[in-house]
# Entry
Amino acid sequence: MILMKDIVRDGHPVLRKKAEEVPLPPSREDMETIKKMEEFLINSQDPVTSERYGLRAGVGLAAPQINVSKRMFVMRVTDEKGQEYNYCFINPKIISHSVEKAYLTSGEGCLSVDRDIPGYVLRHARIKVKGYDENGREIRLRLRGLPAIVFQHELDHLNGVMFYDHINKENPFHVPKDAVPVDR
Ligand code: UDB
Ligand code: ZN
# Structure
């Protein structure tokens, strides 16, 4: 199973590389990597298991974070209506997005970053996405709110981008007009 020690930390060069496209259908090895990543999120969200193994409760994990430089990530998040978004994405893309921006009012963190970095991360408020699941079947979704933020945070990892790259240097808490706050 994946533990916190298996998650590479900020400063590791793999987090700054553009990850490789995954050939489809996914290989047995790639399917196993995805399974392990999904299991990490499930374990990390389970109070007993996360306590036993010292896991931070994760809502998303991208392959580069376990030192696998491939375009795949998993997300496991519930929106404000209680809808669950449990997906694995291979070769994910944003097809279109709103002009409107959104940001987590608590700011963002990262399983690969051990310190708190204050500031808002502005992201697209609404996105249409596509990608492939662990069986190589196409997924198309429209996302908003927290699931949209998680998707964009994980997609950034596949492009070597960290959440703090997006924080305004002059005023970390600057909110452009009509940006939508998202509460956790
Ligand atoms: C997380 N979790 O998993 F808005 F119920 C973070 C950590 C780094 C704090 C564990 C998180 O933000 N949980 C959360 C957020 C909510 C509501 C809620 C739980 N990640 C995943 C990560 O680092 N992936 O690479 C960081 C998130 C920050 C914004 C999206 C992903
Ligand atoms: Zn992250």
Remarks:
- The first helix runs from residue 28 to 45.
- The beta strands are 60-62, 72-78, 84-97, 101-104, 123-124, 126-132, 138-144, 180-182.
